[in-house]
Design goal:
This protein is α/β, with parallel strands linked by helices. The chain folds into two domains: 255 residues, Luciferase-like domain (TIM Barrel); 93 residues, no CATH class. The protein is 34% helix and 16% strand. The chain has ten helices and 17 strands. A seven-stranded mixed beta sheet has the order 4-5-8-9-10-13-17. The longest helix has 18 residues. It is globular and about 60 Å long.
């Protein structure tokens, strides 16, 4: 994850390039809370789409996923054009993450429409329809009449050069049904949907999609997790409860289990923490991205190395699970090449 905390452009460029150099598939940018008056957006932040544009301009291979755009803040017709342009400029490296907008106080603060839970799902469905309709290759004027959005002869030109994936960040059964019908991917977070519940929801989405005649591989199943590499007893004492905690091998097994359950992309949240697993007297050490790691071309994994703390722990660890089983997870979670900080692990999945 690349968080949207304020930083100089050179720092965001460095973080994005680190993600790419390490061999990761995605950089997720979060959160999208342009108002600081809401429950979730109390801190300082960059605007997420602007940050995504910056990260894409700094890289050549990395796919960038704003996770997720809050629907109330931008009309879906404008989002359709934003995505078409950025995907074209980046050479097809955009995934469009959409959510219904969970922070009603922030939405109301801007004088925007605050929707009831049932209305949010319906509005999200209409947004997907509007966006896909505007992306049509024939570029014909679009007519759409919905409860929340309308098009009256709108069109965008040019049409996207490919079918840009749309992933939905939804955490309730009505949203899962929407994923099964119309989405290219599902992106829940473990703080809202713990692993057992997320796995059960995945099975439900897959069953619904199969009944609708969709291929099993037509939906990406992503999951946003946090980990605590170290003594599990310290996890809660040092911050928010992580999704997984323990030694690198233990966490590798837990992540491997998620992959075996059907999750195709694992996204590593910035709240993840990395401490000593062998009795370090400074267990609060949080390691940052290892600047001296380089990808191993034979395996698509970073070679072992270690770097000093720099406050960027967990910034860019997002990968497809088809490239990762236990040994790969373990290698990325903990580097044994301890030079600068004996007894500590470097981040990575």
């Amino acid at each position: 994850m690349l968080d949207t905390r304020p930083m100089p452009g050179a720092e965001l460029t460095s973080l994005a390039r680190d993600c790419e150099d390490f061999g990761f598939d995605f950089a997720m940018l979060h959160p999208d809370h342009p108002s600081s008056s809401g429950v979730r957006g109390a801190g300082e932040s960059l605007e997420v789409w602007t940050a995504a544009t910056w990260a894409l301009a700094a890289t050549r291979r990395l796919t960038v996923l704003p996770a997720v755009l809050g629907l109330p803040y931008r009309h879906p017709g404008v989002v359709a054009k934003m995505a078409e342009s950025l995907d074209r400029l980046s050479g097809g490296r955009v995934v469009l993450g959409l959510g219904s907008g969970g922070d009603d106080r922030a939405v109301a603060g801007f004088g925007l429409t605050v929707r009831a839970p049932g209305q949010k799902v319906r509005a999200l469905e209409e947004a997907v329809v509007v966006i896909r309709q505007l992306w049509r290759q024939d570029r014909a004027p679009s007519i759409f009449r919905g409860d929340h959005f309308n098009l009256d002869g709108a069109s965008i030109n040019p049409a996207p050069g490919r079918q840009i994936p749309i992933w939905l960040g939804v955490h309730a059964p009505k949203g899962w049904e929407l994923v099964a019908r119309v989405a290219d991917g599902w992106l829940p977070s473990s703080f809202a949907l713990p692993p057992e519940d997320a796995t059960a929801a995945l099975r439900s989405i897959r069953t619904m999609a199969e009944h609708l005649g969709r291929r099993q591989d037509s939906i990406e199943y992503a999951y946003n997790v946090t980990v605590f590499v170290g003594n599990p007893a310290l996890a809660q004492a040092q911050g928010p409860t992580p999704t997984f905690s323990g030694s690198p091998d233990q966490i590798a097994g837990q992540l491997d289990s998620l992959a075996g359950s059907g999750f195709t992309v694992l996204l590593h949240s910035r709240e993840s923490r990395f401490v000593d697993t062998a009795g370090d007297r400074n267990p609060q050490r949080i390691l940052g991205v290892a600047d001296d790691q380089h990808p191993d071309p034979a395996r698509g994994l970073p070679q072992r190395g270690l770097q000093k703390t720099n406050g960027h722990a967990g910034q860019c660890v997002s990968m497809r699970t088809r490239n990762a089983r236990s040994s790969a997870f373990s290698d990325r979670l903990c580097s044994r090449g301890r030079r600068q900080s004996p007894g500590a692990c470097s981040p990575g999945i």
